[in-house]
Amino acid sequence: MFPQRFDQAKPFVTLGLALIAWLLVPTALKRMTRATFFELQAPVETAASYVRDVQDFWALKTRSKEELIEAGRDLARLNAAYEVRLQRDAALRNEIERLESILKLPAPAGYRAEPARVVRRDFSSWWQQLVIRKGRNHGITEGSPVIYSGGVVGRVREVRAYTAIIDLISNPGVRIAAAAEGDTRPISYQGGVNPAFGPAFGTVEYVPLDVFVSTGTPRRLVTSGLGGVFPPNLTIGYMTRVEPSTDGLFKSGDVRLDPALADLNEVTVLVPEIEPEAR
User: Fold this and answer.
1) What is the pTM of this model?
2) Residues above pLDDT 90, as percent of the chain
3) Most CB atoms within 10 A, among 104, 134, 207, 275?
């Protein structure tokens, strides 16, 4: 009778011994094992990403000529609009440089834009992150801001040999110095505890009492530039609800994030440029 019970409990005993052995393993060895696992797993995920790109290419090859002509026309319109914006941007940059030279102000730190394809997404309740197929091999650094055409994506958390992990702005561990559009007063933004299959949202604190928003009249929330991580005036989301906090000095509320964050295929990492004197 006893041998039969022991045979039934043997898998649980083995699992318990394995857990105890893992708890006794030094922390440095655990970190090395985890890093090695990611480095071994990365080539498989990267290869799958390239295969998906090839599949998308051949899927586009099946499109008719009429669809390609229409897509070319739409692209030409976008290019024309971007050309106008580039000219306006160049004029503004020249004006900023002129004012900086007059006031003898130091030039702000610049960024190098590094586009990267998304390898994998993880939108569980506690982890909201992306994996991109660029890492140390392209100069990606931890803490670098990540953006896309609609605004802020998140921040680089870990960098591997040729992949990197990005914490999305919906992640509760991400905090950003923000401001309401058209207002310079700082607001604290933080990712919310998002459901696995629901729309992403964030929260705001220290909102001035004279800021009023509602679901019908939301207000755009942008980066303030404070803290030196994110450049100013990048879209974070839209404040849809603010209510006075318990202390009565500020307001707090919710921020609706762009649903496009769930469908990103490519992002841009802003790698800070290091001045030659600081190297």
Assistant:
1) 0.71
2) 35
3) 207
